């Protein structure tokens, strides 16, 4: 958390003026929405927060009150919350960081604000500990969402400001906070319709985890801005003329795609910036502030005008007007071909829809009050969240699975289907007939054997389409099995199936234990904890419960216990009393905290004693270079303590880094390369350009003759005068690799040279 800062050089008077300036700006922004005594309540919250945080400063040295003021500004200006949200934002840290209690908040500001502050306090710092604890804490955070969605909205504003001010944090903290943000908070913002905030969180994540690539893309976007602007102006000219002739008031927006989305496409498609063509989208915002039939009609009218001039791609038309997303997002999306042969994404919406698209859930109150279909959709989703959470999870694996499933579900679209009685059901896109059955009722799902869609019999694995009317066929003899988990996609169905399977497994486990105990008695062996562990190891089962379950199911025959007895007796005869004493100084590898203590012990008073030195610590600690990112000397790296394979060294830009840092923070350790160690590291380079005679000779000459680098493999493919290829080679460090890249970029015909890290060890 933030710390107290003592300094004699702080200009307290200037800070006081800045604080009041920020407060007045907050009031000006909120003024159009304030009623009755709202301003007095905000003033009271402001001075309460100022007093509570009066001696506190952020790591940057700024007064701590700057932070709650900034969060409150985001809450009202960018999310659109009212007085309660502003007050909660101003007070969101006072209970955690000061002597104030929830009871004090309730007495001063009422139950509603106290409840939000209580929720925010419970989820503060929620991701500081280990894997299963993190998942459990995330579950608690989401439970507060189902109490009052403003808890999450204020928390998102809090996270956004922390990301905006991340410069003052040390590098390891930046990586950890950025990883949590992309893993949890950006998907939440997406699900709640806060697309502007979601995009900024993604951009800031990239800025701190891939700073060089972020700056490179930003620079190229600036350099190509003039070309884009001219293209957009030319593209929009005939559309604007026809919109005006039709008497429609509108605003045209030509927005570039976010740096994060461009970077994501470059990475997924393995293409340089120059080969990513859909760098921007056109948005037509039509003037209309009330939801009515005309609102949809003018959107379709504008679509007709666009397609009069440009040919649409029929596969890329998305109608979110008739079937809005659960968070209320409405828009008409189409992709059309420009006169120059370039695909252009066009989004058509009204001013009301545009504000909802930017501010999400909170913007609905401005237009429709509390009695809204959208609120029903959001609350239906929140109800589904609570149902999933209340199923709980007992072991660590289940906790992590929950976190993964929930996170992936945040980005999913919906499918709209009907019951035989015509009741509309909204499920996750990709849902099957079996998902539908479990959505109706757990017992219906458990006994589902088939379904009818439009009167036609279909299997339980049938994937639902929009408009399907589904009738579930059940049988009392049917029951869930492991294969069902591969059929369903919804969290609710998966949770119910797992519950049924767990109960079935427990029954078989109990039966198996009783059977083993009786058989061992006949063989003269008592079943105790030691024997149970020996049985588990002998039959190669992960757990004792798994062993007894296998016996109960008949997968392991009871007669096999005779073989176990013979093996046990043979081992006991070979037991020697000269077993080596356990090495008390062995390097622990169970968690990052323990390992850090061990590193400090062996490194002594060195400044970086808590850091794993790659090379120097080779003899003392078991570690390997991760094959998912293949780090080389000079890369920014960290260590990850695995369960059975020692420590894996990953690049901070590894595709798995965000997930590891978010879900397993207690198993992360600092690591760096020992200077002066000479070692060869496997690296990969992707090349592309125009083909010519002698190109391969020039490339291999630089690698082998000039830089004396050993190659492991070289692949070049040419088509229509263009070549693409990859080289696998051994380099000393990143400087060595950069030198090679610079040399190769000078070769005639070579236009692009990029490092790649995956599949280096493939034959």
From TrEMBL:
InterPro entries reported for this sequence: ACT-like_dom_sf, ACT_dom, Beta-grasp_dom_sf, HD/PDEase_dom, NT_sf, RelA/Spo_fam, RelA/SpoT_AH_RIS, RelA_SpoT
Domain TGS: 412-474
A molecular function (GO) term: hydrolase activity
GO terms (BP aspect): guanosine tetraphosphate metabolic process
UniProt keyword annotations, A-Z: Hydrolase
GO CC field: plasma membrane
Superkingdom of source: Bacteria
One Pfam short name: RelA_SpoT
PANTHER family cross-referenced by the UniProt entry: GTP PYROPHOSPHOKINASE, GUANOSINE-3',5'-BIS DIPHOSPHATE 3'-PYROPHOSPHOHYDROLASE
Biological role stated in the UniProt entry: In eubacteria ppGpp (guanosine 3'-diphosphate 5'-diphosphate) is a mediator of the stringent response that coordinates a variety of cellular activities in response to changes in nutritional abundance.
Family to which this protein belongs: Belongs to the relA/spoT family.
NCBIfam families referenced in this protein's UniProt entry, alphabetically: spoT_relA (TIGR00691)
Protein name, UniProt field: Bifunctional (P)ppGpp synthetase/guanosine-3',5'-bis(Diphosphate) 3'-pyrophosphohydrolase
């Amino acid at each position: 958390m933030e710390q107290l800062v003592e300094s004699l050089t702080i200009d307290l008077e200037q800070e006081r003026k800045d604080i009041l300036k920020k407060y007045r700006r907050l009031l000006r922004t909120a003024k159009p929405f304030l009623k009755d005594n709202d301003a007095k309540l905000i003033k009271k919250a402001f001075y309460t927060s100022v007093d509570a945080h009066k001696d506190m400063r952020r790591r940057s040295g700024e007064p701590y009150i700057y932070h709650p003021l900034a969060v409150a500004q985001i809450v009202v200006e960018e999310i659109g919350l009212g007085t309660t949200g502003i007050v909660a934002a101003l007070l969101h840290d006072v209970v955690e960081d000061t002597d104030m209690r929830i009871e004090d908040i309730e007495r001063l500001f009422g139950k509603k604000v106290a409840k939000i502050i209580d929720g925010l306090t419970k989820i503060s710092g929620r991701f500081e500990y280990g894997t299963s604890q993190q998942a459990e804490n995330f579950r608690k955070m989401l439970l507060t969402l189902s109490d009052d969605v403003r808890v999450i909205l204020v928390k998102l504003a809090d996270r956004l400001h922390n990301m905006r001010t991340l410069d003052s944090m040390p590098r390891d903290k930046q990586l950890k906070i950025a990883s949590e943000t992309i893993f949890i908070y950006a998907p939440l913002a997406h699900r709640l319709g806060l697309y502007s905030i979601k995009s900024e969180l993604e951009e800031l994540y990239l800025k701190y985890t891939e700073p060089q690539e972020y700056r490179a893309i930003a620079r190229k976007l600036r350099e190509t801005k003039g070309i884009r602007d001219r293209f957009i102006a030319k593209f929009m000219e005939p559309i604007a003329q026809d919109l005006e002739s039709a008497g429609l008031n509108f605003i045209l927006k030509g927005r570039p795609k976010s740096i994060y989305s461009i970077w994501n496409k470059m990475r997924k498609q393995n293409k340089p910036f120059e080969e990513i063509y859909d760098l921007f989208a056109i948005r037509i915002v039509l003037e209309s502030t009330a939801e009515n039939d005309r609102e949809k009609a003018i959107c379709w009218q504008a679509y007709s005008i666009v397609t009069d001039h440009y040919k649409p791609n029929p596969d890329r038309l998305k109608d979110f007007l008739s079937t809005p997303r659960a968070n209320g997002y409405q828009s008409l999306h189409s992709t059309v071909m420009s006169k120059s042969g370039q695909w252009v994404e066009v989004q058509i919406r009204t001013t009301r829809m545009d504000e909802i698209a930017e501010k999400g859930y909170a913007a609905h109150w401005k237009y429709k009050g509390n009695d809204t279909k959208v609120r029903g959709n959001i609350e239906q989703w929140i109800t589904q969240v609570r149902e999933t959470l209340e199923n709980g999870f007992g072991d660590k694996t289940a906790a992590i699975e929950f976190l993964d499933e929930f996170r992936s579900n945040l980005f999913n679209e919906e499918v709209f289907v009907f019951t035989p009685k015509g009741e509309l059901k909204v499920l996750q896109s990709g849902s099957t007939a079996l998902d539908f059955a479990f959505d109706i009722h757990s017992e219906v799902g458990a006994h589902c054997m088939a379904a009818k869609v439009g009167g036609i019999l279909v299997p339980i694995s049938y994937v639902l389409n929009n408009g399907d009317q589904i009738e579930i066929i059940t049988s009392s003899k049917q029951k869930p099995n492991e294969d069902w988990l591969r059929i369903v996609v919804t969290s609710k169905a998966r949770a119910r199936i797992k519950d049924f399977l767990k109960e079935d497994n427990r029954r078989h486990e109990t039966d198996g234990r009783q059977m083993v105990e009786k058989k061992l008695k006949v063989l003269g062996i008592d079943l105790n904890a030691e024997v149970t562990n020996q049985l588990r190891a002998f039959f190669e089962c992960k757990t004792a419960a798994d062993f007894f379950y296998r016996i109960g199911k008949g997968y392991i025959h009871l007669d096999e216990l005779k073989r176990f007895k013979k093996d046990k007796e043979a081992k006991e005869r070979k037991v020697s009393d000269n077993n080596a004493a356990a090495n008390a100084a062995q390097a622990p590898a169970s968690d990052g905290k323990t390992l850090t203590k061990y590193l400090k012990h062996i490194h002594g008073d060195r400044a970086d004693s808590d850091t794993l030195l790659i090379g120097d610590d080779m003899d003392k600690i078991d570690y390997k270079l991760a094959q998912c990112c293949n780090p080389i000397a000079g890369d920014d790296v960290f260590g990850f303590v695995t369960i059975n394979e020692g420590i894996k060294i990953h690049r901070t830009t590894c595709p798995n880094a965000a997930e590891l840092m978010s879900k397993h923070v207690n198993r992360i350790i600092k690591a760096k390369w020992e200077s002066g160690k000479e070692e060869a590291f496997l690296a990969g380079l992707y090349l592309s350009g125009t083909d010519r005679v002698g190109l391969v000779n020039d490339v291999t000459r630089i690698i082998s003759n000039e830089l004396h680098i050993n190659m492991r493999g070289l692949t070049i493919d040419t088509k229509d005068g263009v070549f693409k290829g990859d080289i696998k080679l051994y380099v000393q460090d990143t400087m060595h690799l950069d030198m090679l890249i610079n040399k190769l970029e000078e070769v005639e015909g070579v236009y692009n040279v990029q490092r790649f890290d995956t599949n280096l060890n493939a034959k």
